[in-house]
């Protein structure tokens, strides 16, 4: 045979992307490029102009990294389980090569070279303009991210739509989110996130070689979703103004954020808060193949000094002394993610769900990130486990202590709350659009013997609860309210109950203030101080009237009013303080998609919103998006929207992928923000007489 003939022997290599991607649960990501999961074989076809000459053979070589930093020579027969290998079958002009990756292979973009080798080991021909992506494989029993429940896999890997729980532990609300992990080029951006981490920029080869480990990769993602100390995706901001970016509440999905970060040359996107950070992390981790779910912890503590106590200092007018109270705080809710993995780096009992928190709160090994931390370690109080277990434990278990700082500087303890932190810990159910309570995954029942044992193991400070009663009478203080609507006037009822045998003359102070969900004080709305006589064994109620005009000027975008009631009575050893947060509900955006929807065919959505406020709204804008439906789209409303006026728009789009899809809409204006709407769109396959069924638009 001539050398010329040998050079021309390999005519083509077919990566068989459609078949492989379908078998590897990656068809949703891309139907054209090869995307496979580790620990599961895939096949390629090598086409030739004839049979291989005697004693000639094919070799396969893989490279990873922009500069091919890592090289892997694929063995021709099965060896140890930690090696790539391939087997070959076929003859004449077509050979089927089946590649087997180890279950702990490095994830990333691989370059593939097919080599025709001579008997003496020379390369006679090379086909090397091919590449594929390798992801984690939660369907593979030998992969450390293996999850045996198919229902959970469909939710925690395959579902592009999610629900985030917000509000307060007493009044939980939900908002839909488009994770969009299979949208066009999102996978590429996820690897771009990894490639721009400090570890990757410092030593690319070492970073790539560590990407077999989901603990390492998830820790990188937790750092890279925020931009505090790297080329991260999101900049956090918890107060207005947001005019030089996008307000956190305006986002309805992760895809516009990731695309903007990439398109801008890996410059941080403005702005995010905890649920946005968590949702973007969920998108990236699901896309890479790590089962992940978003968690909301209500009444979440941020314990800076590690004493398992959140101390709030108030002046004698019940105003927060933020500058003197340290950085401890308690948030109405806080979001993080849990990722599923086996922890080979830890003792037995720490496998399963791991807390990962990308919100920049505290440093972990010198970087703003948190986790992964086993949920089981938090429940059992094993705070020596990696990573950041003491901080996560405090988030769900800390005490809240209120102090009054008197004019002479002395502190007076007025309230200790052992039970409020870590309430109604929530995630979306795998069975539908409703809430699962996972509190008992994090802690034993409140007041149980097992809970006390865990606290003792964790070193939680035992704080005596201040007495709420002394002679001459036992007093109880409570706050009651309906579910007020933003834009209306409403009443808050403060009740003082006297269970003693003597009448009580008390001074009652009632204060309503606007706060953010992270407990930042935005201004006072109303204050009243009155003297109340409470007969023995009776209750006395006082009304605090809150008018729209009073709270509209200072209420935050979180629409939260915090009411404090404070009682002092002659003869009582300790004053009483009770605090409640009142969320103001907002209207909804109404969406209709009439008729049947087919892939690649235009459908119309009718969207309407009615102004519920007694004032006009200016600068109205609708934002729409939906995985498999349409990219993020903004539509501005012309002119003002008068009180009671309904504004309607019609939007046309062509669905890109089949399946059950969610269309999400956000409405914002100058006086009313974060108004959401969602509808389900079932996108059907399109059939043609002479073509096979169509399930995607390219």
UniProtKB/TrEMBL annotation:
Binds 1 Ca(2+) ion per subunit. Its cofactor is Ca(2+). GO terms for molecular function: metal ion binding; protein-glutamine gamma-glutamyltransferase activity. It is an enzyme of class 2 (transferase). Gene3D superfamilies: Immunoglobulins, Transglutaminase-like. Pfam families: Transglut_C (PF00927), Transglut_core (PF01841), Transglut_N (PF00868). PROSITE patterns: TRANSGLUTAMINASES (PS00547). Residues 266-360 form the Transglutaminase-like domain. GO terms for cellular component: mitochondrion. Ca(2+) binds at residues 397, 399, 446, 451. SMART domains: TGc. Keywords: Acyltransferase, Calcium, Metal-binding, Transferase. The active site is at 274, 334, 357. Its EC number is 2.3.2.13. One of its GO terms (biological process) is nervous system development. PANTHER family: NOVEL TRANSGLUTAMINASE FAMILY PROTEIN-RELATED (PTHR11590:SF73), PROTEIN-GLUTAMINE GAMMA-GLUTAMYLTRANSFERASE (PTHR11590). Belongs to the transglutaminase superfamily. Transglutaminase family. This is protein-glutamine gamma-glutamyltransferase.
């Amino acid at each position: 045979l001539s050398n010329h003939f040998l050079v021309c022997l390999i005519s083509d290599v077919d990566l068989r992307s459609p078949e492989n991607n379908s078998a590897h649960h990656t068809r949703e990501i891309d139907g054209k490029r090869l995307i496979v999961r580790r620990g599961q074989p895939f096949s390629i076809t090598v086409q030739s102009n004839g049979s291989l000459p005697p004693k000639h053979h094919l070799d396969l070589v893989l490279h990873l990294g922009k500069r091919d930093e890592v090289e892997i020579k694929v063995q021709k027969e099965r060896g140890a389980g930690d090696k790539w290998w391939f087997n070959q079958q076929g003859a004449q002009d077509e050979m089927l090569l089946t590649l087997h990756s180890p279950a702990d292979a490095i994830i990333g973009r691989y370059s593939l070279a097919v080599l025709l080798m001579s008997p003496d080991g020379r390369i006679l021909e090379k086909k090397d303009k091919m590449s594929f992506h390798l992801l984690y494989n939660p369907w593979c029993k030998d992969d450390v991210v293996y999850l045996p429940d198919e229902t959970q896999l469909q939710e925690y890997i395959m579902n592009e739509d999610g629900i985030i729980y917000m509000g307060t532990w007493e009044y939980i609300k939900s908002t839909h989110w488009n994770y969009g992990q299979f949208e066009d080029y999102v996978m590429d951006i996820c690897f771009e996130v990894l490639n721009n981490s400090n570890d990757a920029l410092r030593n690319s080869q070492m970073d790539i070689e560590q990407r077999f480990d989901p603990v390492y990769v998830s820790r990188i993602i937790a750092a890279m979703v925020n931009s505090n100390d790297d080329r991260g995706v999101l900049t956090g901001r918890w107060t207005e103004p947001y005019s030089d970016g996008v307000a956190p509440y305006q986002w309805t999905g992760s895809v516009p954020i990731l695309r903007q970060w990439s398109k801008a040359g890996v410059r941080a996107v403005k702005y995010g808060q905890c649920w946005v950070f968590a949702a973007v992390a969920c998108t990236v981790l699901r896309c890479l193949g790590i089962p992940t779910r978003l968690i909301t912890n209500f009444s979440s503590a941020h314990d800076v000094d590690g004493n398992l106590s959140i101390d709030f200092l108030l002046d004698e007018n019940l105003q927060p002394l933020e500058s003197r109270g340290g950085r401890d705080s308690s948030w109405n809710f806080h979001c993080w993610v849990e990722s599923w993995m086996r922890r080979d780096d830890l003792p037995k009992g720490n496998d399963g769900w791991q807390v990962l928190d990308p919100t920049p709160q505290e440093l972990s090994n010198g970087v703003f990130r948190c986790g992964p931390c086993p949920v089981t370690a938090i429940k059992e109080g094993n705070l020596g486990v990696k990573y950041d277990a003491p901080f996560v434990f405090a988030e769900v278990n800390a005490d809240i202590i209120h102090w009054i700082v008197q004019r002479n500087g002395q502190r007076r303890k007025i309230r200790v709350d052992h039970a409020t932190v870590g309430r109604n810990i929530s995630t979306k159910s795998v069975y539908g659009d409703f809430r699962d309570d996972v509190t008992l995954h994090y802690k034993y029942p409140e007041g149980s013997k097992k809970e006390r044992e865990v606290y003792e193991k964790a070193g939680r400070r035992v704080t005596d609860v201040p007495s709420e009663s002394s002679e001459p009478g036992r007093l109880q203080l409570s706050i009651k309210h309906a579910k007020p609507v933003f834009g209306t006037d409403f009443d808050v009822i403060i009740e003082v109950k006297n269970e003693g045998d003597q009448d009580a003359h008390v001074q009652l102070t009632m204060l309503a203030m606007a706060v953010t969900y992270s407990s930042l004080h935005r201004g006072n709305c109303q204050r009243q101080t009155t003297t109340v006589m409470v007969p023995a064994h009776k209750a006395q109620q006082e009304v605090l009237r809150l008018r729209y005009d009073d709270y509209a000027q200072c209420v935050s975008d979180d629409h939260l009013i915090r009411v404090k009631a404070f009682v002092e009575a002659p003869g009582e050893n300790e004053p009483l303080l009770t605090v409640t947060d009142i969320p103001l509900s907002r209207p909804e955006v109404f969406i209709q998609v009439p008729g049947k929807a087919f892939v690649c065919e235009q459908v119309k959505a009718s969207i309407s919103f009615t102004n519920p406020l007694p004032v006009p709204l200016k600068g109205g804008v609708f934002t729409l998006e939906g995985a498999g439906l349409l990219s993020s789209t903004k539509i501005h409303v012309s002119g003002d929207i008068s009180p009671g006026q309904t504004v309607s728009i019609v939007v046309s789009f062509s669905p890109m992928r089949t399946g059950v899809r969610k269309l999400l809409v956000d409405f914002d204006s100058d006086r009313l923000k974060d108004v959401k709407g969602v509808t389900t769109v079932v996108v059907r396959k399109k059939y043609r007489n002479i073509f096979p069924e169509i399930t995607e638009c390219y």
